[in-house]
Amino acid sequence: MAAPIGRSCLQYLLHLAQDNIDFRLPEISALLSLRGKPFNAGENFKEKSPFWCLDGLSEEDVRGIMARSVCAKSAFELWGHGRTHSELRTSLLKYPSENMSPFMQKDSTYRINVYTFNKTLEFTDRIKRIDAMEYLPFEGSVSLKTPQHIFCLLEDYGTDPNNIPEDPFHVYFGRWVTDGQRELIRSHSVKNRHFIGNTSMDAGLSFIMANHAKVKENDIVFDPFVGTGNLLVACSHFGAYVCGTDIDYNTIHGKGRSSRKNQKWRGPDENIRANLRQYGTEKSYLDVMVSDASKPVWKECALFDAIITDPPYGIRESTRRTGSYKDVTKPPEDFGGESHVPVSMAYHLSDIFTDLLNFSARHLVIGGRLVYWLPVYRPEYCEEMVPLHPCLRLISNCEQTLSSHTSRRLITMEKIKEPEESDALAHLSDPQFSPYQGHNAFREKYFSGLNKRCDKEDNKFNVNGE
Fold first, then answer.
1. Cα dihedral sign for 50, 55, 57, 59?
2. Which of 32, 91, 101, 168 is least surrounded by CB atoms within 10 angstroms?
């Protein structure tokens, strides 16, 4: 039960969405870090729970977090909690009256909501719970439509929909402070995006990646596998200047076949800049260009506050780089023919990640973050598969399951020092910095698992004779 606390040391309750569960703690921690605050959870903290109690924050801190979070639904100033309604009453009666009184004046209006997680209550039961809280010293009048203050009684019935208890595991009561940014998932949905491709990133995950990277106003953010620029859209929403590169000429210039149903070719204004214009952030667009991520084209210095990307896995988009296994004769300098289209060759996943980490070590500012997706074959996964670099510290590693046998992991790393000559040979002296060659077989393992599943379904079809 909650102990009496002063106004300067309040406890806040976060109600979190139950999707992308692995991503929630790194997101909230990163947003707190932006405000110079550590993540201090209350007693009995459970990462998978939909409710988190946080200590050591001000209301301004909480509003700052919720102004960006897509993992958190709502935030409350926690007045009391307990395992039963009786414990909740005891906890609320111990809460300092001076903390309650500003929101219970005679000339104020209020409303009490009842929210239950993993259980639906009848309307009459909700009213009974509200009436049972008459011991609270409310002096204002009730206003259901436009209250000045909103209070919420929250009941947690666990996360198992097949085993819902009769009574809640925990009960909370508090003053609603603000909501999170879940609306961004709808407003920035790829379905409504002006320019999309086969691998356009989900809007919710794009904003999560931007938050993990601690992207903020006036940052410069780079995506070396920019595609249709969905990650740039998310970063520009938070006020960052964005740029990117991609080896695909048609994608960068918005040409070629459309990824939309019933549309054969892309329109004249389908490009990355148009996507930012759609959301009113075109002023944050620096530029994109056709470039090979395996080739050095940037000045050797720290250029970017964050590097956020989704490298190709060889599933929907091929992993290619410029080059050839054959000896290619270069055209003469005075060659006046058509524009030269370079020959491409396979770009192995292990090489992609090695190049990406080396690039980030050279071009991130100190404290800058690299956030990228790592595809893995789940039966073989171990932490040693995650690429490491002497200049980059691993911050978080979150899994998004794709199928029974594959997933991708969102890796967040932070630059802690400038590269030295010895770092180029780190993989020789320390095995943890050696590239994991197993990544190169991901495509074969992905389709191998897919084929096995199809064979099982075919066998089941033949047995049932349907």
1. positive
2. 101
C-alpha–C-alpha distance, residues 72 and 426, integer Å: 40
Q: CA-to-CA distance for 203 and 426, rounded, in angstroms?
A: 37
Q: Is residue 451 very low, low, confident or very high in pLDDT (cuts 50, 70, 90)?
A: low
Torsion of CA 235, 239, 241, 244, to 10 degrees: 10
Q: pTM for the complete prediction?
A: 0.88
Cα angle vertex 121, ends 115, 126, to 5°?
65
Q: C-alpha angle 77/78/80, rounded to 5°?
A: 150
Alpha carbons 40 and 309: distance in angstroms, whole number: 30
Q: Which residue has the tokens 């977090």?
A: 65
Beta bridge partners of 435: none
Residue 19 in tokens: 């999707």
Tens of pLDDT, residues 205-258:
999 999 999 999 999 999 999 999 999 999 999 999 999 999 988 888 888 777
Pair type for strands 320-322 and 12-16? unpaired
Q: Two tokens at 352?
A: 């992609």
How many CB atoms lie under 10 A from the CB of residue 38? 10
